[in-house]
Please model this.
Amino acid sequence: MTVAGLAGRRWNPWANDAATLDLYRRRCRKEAEEMTCARQAAEVLGPLVGSGESLLDAGCGGGYYLWSFLDRGVELDWHGLDYTPEMIELARSELCPRAGVAPERFELGAIEGIEGRFDNVLCFNVLTNSPHYALPLERLLEAAGKRILLRESLGTELTVRYTPDPYLDEGARHIRVYHNTYPRREVVSFMEEHGFAVTAVPDERTGDGTELVVDIPHEWRILLGERREPASGA
Model:
């Protein structure tokens, strides 16, 4: 992987949200309830992956999705990537010692700078907070040797929201965050053009409905992409 596009603290919402950082720390320590979407990710990919296959958790935060896989006996060559230094430090200091994972498996960098190939790519609740899905998703598809599992806000049309977040730390609530909803059919077509067969998986948390996140509607949907032919170099 290439370290690129790191987030400057003064405009990075995830570096200015003490409440979320504390929640992530408790998840890393297994002191908080398992996320429904983390459980579902493990249940969807678990039956598909082979023992020892590699997986990249793109936009991994504290890396706690790893627990959902390990708790179900799904052991993978796990890698995490996030562009927020505080998140990578959390993964390395809190998750890794407890899960028996080498800290260097979690790297600081942006999705747009990914180099290398992984059997599996997992990206949940990340591209919705990007300026647009196309460039990061293209990089993720190039990196996915066998399959990719996505969870993003996907609807019938493009809706771009770039708004201040009133739930950030005091003094940081002017920082704007993307909360985009992308056209589902367009995203599916994009994945198909890159050589993937795409299957929609019902989102268990929302029932494929709408959920308010920081008071903004999100239409969470899950897509499983399976490469039609082995990628060169996989």
